[in-house]
């Protein structure tokens, strides 16, 4: 019988399979093989026992010095005490209350590997009833024969599955496998000096040397990166097979009209990207371009120019925004930028101009009907909207380009649904203001060509960032005085709170203690809806995500809510005269829109909000950003929030307020805030963020299942490997799109299960 990665463990290891399933959830050969040793011990050397961490599960190697049985004092029967020595003269006792079966094997001179929980008895370190294997057992009846190799692999222990039993079961599996289909083409393996798949598993689980297991691991990582890239390449090549309509440049069209209307010159970076967009759009191969650039680097105007290029060539463009607030804002910004260009056929409008339609969920039936009609008739060259835009009722006359703003808020299905509305594949442009480290871009957006805007338009005033901690209470007071000054000087202020809270929550004790010591807890789980994951902090699913665990754990810091803070500011002498407003996710789309509009119009001085304002909100007159409980937010999120200010000519100020010492892990939080304060370079921050976070967060894997994330790769460390795998995979697929010569790779791609596919679809 031959086995492969999908074979059930039960069919190979028999009864032991239940143990593997109960303790680790492993059911297939692959599950077991992919679970790599935590570390390796050199069986020829014994590390000093003195350093062993008390109370922890350990695996040690040593030599039996002495074995004695003696009568137990309180119980009947005899106990066995075996003294094992390390190379440094230290000793460890192995204690057995049932000596039977151990006595004959644990004899002086026996070299043993033991695993168990370290405790002390008097001054003596001991393991009680440890699991062990004798390396030089003359009887040969010992388990753990596999330990005789060079290095001893150590698997993380769990109760009921000791490292040695784990190793024994794994050994059965390794022996049962005679060969494994290898998804890596032989040419790729040769070029990169990679062992075959089965060899790699032997190298990581049964290494003779350090070099062996490194080689095995490298190969497994390479395969992981390669398969991801191959899946992206296959999907991309398949979609390229359905052509897009090429949108040839039109002289003196709407694009040119906008260029001459803009009150500024494009930066040279913008010009480069515009060139890339125009040449992509002129191809029949559908554009798949990711445009990343700092907040305020001028992506939106580029998207608009691209949309006009398509309108000029007879098509329509759709702009998808993640929220109603943003859709509304895009609509206003775009119609303002376009002016008469967007008033085609209207009195005073440009004769050859077009129209811009807005579709949101909160429109009246009549409004919606009019906009739907404009989209369906083609009268509107540009259609802007949220998810509502992609509902079935929306039809386009000729959709040629889909622009997705702030990609990380969108699922691929949503994009595909929109794409399906076009007869030909539309071109796709994705914009993100969250700078993405290269490895993440390759892994998550590996099917896209990337354009990057690195410079900000000239004349941008700098943003200064300060961390304000509760250790210096006077500072908090000064924060609010500063806010008031800013507002009186004509600037506008955002105050961001991690949660909404309830309107009838108890008041803050004293207005001037907003900030550390001030916040009030609501009953756990009530109305707390905006806390981000402190480690990740991207709030993927909703703009306001709520980390229930953090909020509910007793002793968790009490966080500022929008309602209390607003009331407190209304009571504070410094701020009570200011025009204050709240904005949060529990308001209707219409209400939010209204508030954003009056804030943009300058009718509000201070906007107290949740992270609903995180993405893309553009009010040039906003100069100050105060983030309460800033330690609750991740690096990227803080950077996004900060990007809301300093967008006009006036310098921006960002104050990150933290309760500091009360936080669960003040060091990490403090470090994060210092990093954010130290630079406004989003790419640098994205890199730091990646280092600080688990890969799953970065990739936004929604399932906690193993398959939804990366198994071996570390995006923060494996750049070189990912680049190599990317090139190898794309070359393979381009030469052989149907994988006729690489059936094993084809099967591996098909084998990627739903969870894994969902992960690739970048949630
Ligand atoms: P992003 O979408 O990248 O955050 P926007 O496109 O919203 O940036 O641009 C931010 C602001 O800068 C807008 O008010 C926009 O009109 C302006 N802007 C864009 N490009 C330039 C430029 N080349 N020179 C001056 N201002 C610009
Ligand atoms: Mg934008």
Task: Walk me through the structure.
The protein has 763 residues and is an alpha/beta fold. The chain is 36% helix and 17% strand. The chain has a 7-stranded parallel sheet, sandwiched between helices. Strands 16-21-20-17-19-18 form a 6-stranded parallel sheet, sandwiched between helices. The chain has 25 helices and 21 strands. It is globular, with a radius of gyration of 31 Å. The longest helix is centred in the first third of the chain and has 31 residues, at 210-240.
How is the secondary structure organized here?
Layout: H1 10-13, H2 16-24, H3 29-33, E1 39-42, E2 57-71, E3 78-85, E4 91-96, E5 111-121, E6 124-128, E7 131-134, E8 151-154, H4 163-176, H5 186-192, H6 197-205, H7 210-240, H8 254-261, H9 268-281, E9 288-293, H10 299-312, E10 316-320, H11 324-338, E11 355-359, H12 365-377, E12 380-385, E13 399-405, H13 412-419, E14 427-432, H14 438-444, E15 449-453, E16 463-469, H15 473-488, E17 492-496, H16 548-552, H17 562-571, E18 580-583, H18 589-600, E19 606-609, E20 622-627, H19 635-642, E21 652-658, H20 666-678, H21 682-692, H22 695-699, H23 719-735, H24 743-751, H25 754-760
Parallel strand pairs: 4-6, 9-14, 9-15, 10-12, 10-13, 11-12, 13-14, 16-21, 17-19, 17-20, 18-19, 20-21
Antiparallel strand pairs: 1-8, 2-3, 2-5, 3-4, 5-6, 5-7
Helix pairs in contact: 6-7, 7-23, 8-10, 9-10, 11-18, 14-23
């Amino acid at each position: 019988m031959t086995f492969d990665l999908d074979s059930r463990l039960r069919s190979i290891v028999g009864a032991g399979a239940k143990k593997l399933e109960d303790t680790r959830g492993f059911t297939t050969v692959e599950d077991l093989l992919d679970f790599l040793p935590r570390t390796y011990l050199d069986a020829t050397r014994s590390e000093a026992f003195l350093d062993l961490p008390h109370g922890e599960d350990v695996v040690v190697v040593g030599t039996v010095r002495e074995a004695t049985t003696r009568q137990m004092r309180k119980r009947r029967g005899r106990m066995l005490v075996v003294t094992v020595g390390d190379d440094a003269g230290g000793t460890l006792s192995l204690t057995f209350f049932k000596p039977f079966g151990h006595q004959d094997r644990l004899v002086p001179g026996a070299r043993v590997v033991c695993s168990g929980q370290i405790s002390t008895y008097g001054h003596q370190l001991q393991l009680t009833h440890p699991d062990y294997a004798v390396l030089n057992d003359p009887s040969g009846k010992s388990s753990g024969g596999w330990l005789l190799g060079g290095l001893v692999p150590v698997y993380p222990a769990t109760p009921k599955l000791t490292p040695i039993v784990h190793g024994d079961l794994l050994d059965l599996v390794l022996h049962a496998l005679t060969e494994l289909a290898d998804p890596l083409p032989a040419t790729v393996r040769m070029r990169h000096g990679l062992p075959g798949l089965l060899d790699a598993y032997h190298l990581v689980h049964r290494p003779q040397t350090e070099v062996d297991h490194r080689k095995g691991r490298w190969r497994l990582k390479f395969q992981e990166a390669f398969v991801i890239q191959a899946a992206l390449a296959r999907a991309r090549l398949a979609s390229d097979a359905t052509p897009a309509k090429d949108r040839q440049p039109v002289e003196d069209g709407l694009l040119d009209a906008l260029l001459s209307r803009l009150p500024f010159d494009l930066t040279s970076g913008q010009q480069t990207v515009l060139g890339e967009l125009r040449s992509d759009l002129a191809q029949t191969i559908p554009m798949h371009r990711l445009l990343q650039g700092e907040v305020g680097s001028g992506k939106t105007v580029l998207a608009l120019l691209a949309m006009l290029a398509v309108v000029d060539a007879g098509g329509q463009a759709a702009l998808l925004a993640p929220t109603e607030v943003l859709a509304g804002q895009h609509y206003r910004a775009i119609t303002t930028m376009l002016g008469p260009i967007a008033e085609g056929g209207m009195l005073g409008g440009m004769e050859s101009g077009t129209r811009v339609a807005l579709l949101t969920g909160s429109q009246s039936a009549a409004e919606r009907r009019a906009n739907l009609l404009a989209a369906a008739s083609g009268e509107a060259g540009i259609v802007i909207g949220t998810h509502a835009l992609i509902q079935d009722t929306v039809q386009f006359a000729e959709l040629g380009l889909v622009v997705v703003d702030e990609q990380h808020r969108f699922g691929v299905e949503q994009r595909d649904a929109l794409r399906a509305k076009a007869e030909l594949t539309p071109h796709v442009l994705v914009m993100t203001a969250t700078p993405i480290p290269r490895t993440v871009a390759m892994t998550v957006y590996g099917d896209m060509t990337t354009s990057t805007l690195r410079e900000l338009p000239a004349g941008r005033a700098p943003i200064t960032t300060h961390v304000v901690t509760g250790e210096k209470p006077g500072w908090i007071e000064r924060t609010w005085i500063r806010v008031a000054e800013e507002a009186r000087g004509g600037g506008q202020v955002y105050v961001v709170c991690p949660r909404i809270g309830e309107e009838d929550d108890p008041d803050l004790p004293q207005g001037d203690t907003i900030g550390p010591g001030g916040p009030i807890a609501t009953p756990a789980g009530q109305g707390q809806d905006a806390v981000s994951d402190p480690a990740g902090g991207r709030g993927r699913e909703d703009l306001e995500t709520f980390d229930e665990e953090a909020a509910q754990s007793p002793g968790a810091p009490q966080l500022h809510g929008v309602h209390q803070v607003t009331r407190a500011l209304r009571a504070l002498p410094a701020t009570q005269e200011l025009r204050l407003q709240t904005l949060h996710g529990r308001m209707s789309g219409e209400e939010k829109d209204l508030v954003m509009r009056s804030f943009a119009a300058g009718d509000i001085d201070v906007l107290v909000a949740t992270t609903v304002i995180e993405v893309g909100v553009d009010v040039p007159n906003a100069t100050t950003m105060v983030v309460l409980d800033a330690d609750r937010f991740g690096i990227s999120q803080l950077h996004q929030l900060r990007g809301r200010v300093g967008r006009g000519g006036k310098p921006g100020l960002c104050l990150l307020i933290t309760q500091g010492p009360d936080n669960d892990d003040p060091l990490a939080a403090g470090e994060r805030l210092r990093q954010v304060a130290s630079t406004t370079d989003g790419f640098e921050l994205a890199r730091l963020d990646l280092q600080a976070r688990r890969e799953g967060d970065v990739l936004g894997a929604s399932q906690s299942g193993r398959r939804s994330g990366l198994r071996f790769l570390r995006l923060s460390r494996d750049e070189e490997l990912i680049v190599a795998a990317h090139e190898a995979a794309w070359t393979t697929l381009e030469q052989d799109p149907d994988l006729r010569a690489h059936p094993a790779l084809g099967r591996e791609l098909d084998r990627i299960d739903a969870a894994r596919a969902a992960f690739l679809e970048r949630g």
